[in-house]
Structure formats: structure tokens, C-alpha cells
Amino acid sequence: MAYVSPATTRSMGLTRRTIDYGYGLSDIQEARENLMRSSAIGSYQNRKQFADLGRALPGGFNRRGMLDSGLFRRGKERLAGQQELATYGLTGQIEEARRQLDKQRSLLEEQFQQGVQQDEIADALRRFGVAQTIQGLV
């Protein structure tokens, strides 16, 4: 069996940790881009849906006196309110997903930093032990 020095093991651990960190950041960035695409598509579909409903609204009030009676105006107001609620709901979902991605990123960064810190502590303890051993020999 080949001898693997502690420095090589630490180097491989740091390399592995760095690769995992890079892949994690890449996954988060890809999820963020997918979120932006779905946000754009959702906004487009929302606008399109309510534009179609807005065009169809006068047809429902196309009887004598209904367009001028105020019912049509109230129908338009209700439709505008529904559109605002739909837009607000979509925006809330997008923001919640963004917050989740931000949490994942900070957790990933924290884990990476903790791993590097643990490696540094282990290296310092190893050096201290070697120094003690050398001091005992001299």
C-alpha cells in the first residue's frame, strides 16, 4: 500500500470541497435562471389571460342599458382587482423561491468555510504536535 502524506490528504479534501462548492454554486445559479424564465413566462401568461378577459368583458354586458348602468364599470374594477391579486401571488411565489435559493447559497458558503476552518485547525494541531515532538528530541 502506498504512503499518502497528511498534506496530500488535506489537499485532496480541499480540492473535493472546492469542487463540491463550485457544483453547488452552479446548481443554484441554474435554478435562479430557471426561476427567472418561469417568472417571465408566468407574467406573460398572466397579462395575456387578463387582456383576453378584458376584451371579453363588454360582451357580457352587451344588453340594453347594462354598459351605462355601472355594472360594466364594476366588472372592470373586479377584473382589475383579480389581475392585481394574481400578479401579487406570482410575485410572492417568485420572491419566496429567490429567498430559498439565497438560503441554500449561504448554507453552502457556510459549510465550505467551516470545512476550510476545520482543515486549518487540524493543520495547526498537527504542526504543534510535530513541534512538540521535535522539541522533545532536541
Describe the structure.
- It is a single chain.
- The chain contains 2 helices and no strands.
- Helix content is 88%, strand content 0%.
- α1 packs antiparallel against α2 (71-137).
- The chain has helices spanning 6-60, 71-137.
- The protein starts with 5 loop residues before the first helix and ends with a helix.
- By secondary structure, it is mainly α.
Low-confidence stretches: none
- Outline the biggest β-sheet: none
End-to-end Cα distance: 32 Å
State Rg: 31 Å
Structural class estimated from helices and strands: mainly alpha
> Treating each run of at least 4 consecutive H or I residues as one helix, how many helices?
2
Q: In percent, how much strand structure appears in the residues?
A: under 5%
Binned, the helix content reads: over 70%
Bulk shape: rod-shaped
Average per-residue pLDDT, rounded, comes to 85
Question: How many beta strands in the DSSP annotation?
Answer: 0
Helix/strand order, N-terminal first: HH
Draw up the topology in text.
Blueprint: H1 6-60, H2 71-137
In short:
With 138 residues, this protein is mainly alpha-helical. The chain has helices spanning 6-60, 71-137. The chain is 88% helix and 0% strand.
